Amino acid sequence: MKKILISFLCIYATCAIAQKNQEEPIEKWPPQAAYRNYLQNYKDIALTYCISVAYKTSPEASKDAIASSNGIDAWSYYAIRDEESPIIKLTKQYLQKNYNAKDGKSRLDLMKCMDMYHSEELDKLAKDYVQRPNDNWVKDNPDRVNENPPRK
């Protein structure tokens, strides 16, 4: 777990890429996370964290999930890197569940992460943790946003 957290922290430094030039308008940042509300971004970070842990033995999948989480984190105001984070605890809880695939070979880890993402537990965590759930990065940083928001 410590290796995952260390990797997570190291990759967090890549957030600097997303924030490297504070003068660039948001149009140059392709992800939509800046336009989604903080509550949704919190849940999205939980999902990407779960995937990064579930696929830690698949370096490319884990690396991409961590980088995605860091990208979302750049447009939020919270972090989950603390070992005491409720997202980390919830992720462990869901990934330890025993799901049985028909072929008997797959652990169905992605399904576990999706179930966590849609769970009442994560909804409660998000509502308890996110202070301004309906706000978003764009609303908080209007001077940094191009007048033409990306299409959905």
Automatic annotation (TrEMBL):
<dbReference type="InterPro" id="IPR038314">
    <property type="entry name" value="T6SS_sf"/>
</dbReference>
<feature type="compositionally biased region" description="Basic and acidic residues">
    <location>
        <begin position="137"/>
        <end position="152"/>
    </location>
</feature>
<protein>
    <recommendedName>
        <fullName>Type VI secretion system amidase immunity protein Tai4</fullName>
    </recommendedName>
</protein>
<keyword id="KW-0732">Signal</keyword>
<feature type="signal peptide">
    <location>
        <begin position="1"/>
        <end position="18"/>
    </location>
</feature>
<feature type="region of interest" description="Disordered">
    <location>
        <begin position="133"/>
        <end position="152"/>
    </location>
</feature>
<dbReference type="InterPro" id="IPR032032">
    <property type="entry name" value="Tai4"/>
</dbReference>
<dbReference type="Pfam" id="PF16695">
    <property type="entry name" value="Tai4"/>
</dbReference>
